[in-house]
Amino acid sequence: MENKKYGIIGLGKMGANLALQAAEKGYQILGYDKFVPIIPEQQNLQIVDDLAALVAGLDRPRKIFIYIPAGAAIDSVITELKPLLEEGDIIIDGGNSYWGDSIRRAEKLKEEGLHLIDCGTSGGINGARNGACFMVGGDKDTVGQIEGLLRDLAVPHGYSYTGNSGSGHFVKLVHNGIEFGMLQAIGEGMALLEGYREKLDVSDILHTWNHGSVVRSWLVELMKQLYDEKQGYNVPSYVEDTGEVNWLVSDAMSMEVAIPVIAQSVMQLIASRDSANIAPRAIAMMRNGFGGHPFGPEAGIEYERHFGRVGGFPPVNMDPGIVQS
């Protein structure tokens, strides 16, 4: 008989929505967050005041998900949990932890008779609430004890056992790298559409692309949705992220695997945050020093940039008659 009681530590956007989905599907969920969570009341979902109460309310083997930011906080929670747990209990890290950290943690916990499963989770907030995608690494027999829940919380075919400890988080890391590359390509496509000589109906183009084209995707769907909601690109240019794809670029260097698209997408993301624009300012200073190039825009040079190649065309509203000697 499957033990259908689970604990979830971290009731933010992902943890709370997974807890609600699991409770709706008949699982008994005990949830804990160090901040008072704002979460709808739900049959089968109980919010407890501390980790001791969460552990005490679970049947053995206890199965506890952690959905908090990666890093030292994960180690801190595990350190707090260990004295409360018993041999055979299972901790599932559902966040974006670095796969090397997951291997280290699993090995350390194994020495104490405990299990760690690394569970890469994708699908965003909507996926957590209505059907997610899971990439799961760890001891196969241990994973088998939580597989029923994960398959119930996943969309059809949205569950994969990836192998030994660390593999789930590694596969999720690669997934996030691919995501960055796709986001960058779509973003560049939007810039090209905006730069065309005539005003294009971007919303209609995105709608068309998502019906039969080879680039149809959820990301294109989201691009259209947000473009319509914001009436264009009326958002800050600063792009925030949690930094995990930086790890992937470093791993690729160690593995000697070339990932130029993913690496460049990280560079472009970082560039979006340079509100002071130090690098281009420095470049402008040096170009002025060696070639007398002007500071700021200059119409004649702009013309040369666009028409220096045969077949070039001017940007929107630029007079192709502008020529300076």
TrEMBL record:
Entry-linked Pfam families: 6PGD (PF00393), NAD_binding_2 (PF03446)
Domain 6-phosphogluconate dehydrogenase C-terminal, residue spans: 168-312
Keyword Oxidoreductase listed: yes
InterPro entries: 6-PGluconate_DH-like_C_sf, 6DGDH_YqeC, 6PGD_dom2, 6PGDH_C, 6PGDH_NADP-bd, NAD(P)-bd_dom_sf, Pgluconate_DH
Keyword terms of this UniProt record: Gluconate utilization, Oxidoreductase
SUPFAM superfamilies: 6-phosphogluconate dehydrogenase C-terminal domain-like (SSF48179), NAD(P)-binding Rossmann-fold domains (SSF51735)
Pathway(s) where this gene product acts: Carbohydrate degradation; pentose phosphate pathway
Record SMART domains: 6PGD
Keyword Oxidoreductase: yes
Cleavable signal peptide: none
Family designation: Belongs to the 6-phosphogluconate dehydrogenase family.
Name of the protein in its database record: Decarboxylating 6-phosphogluconate dehydrogenase
Native species: Mucilaginibacter defluvii
Underlying gene: gnd
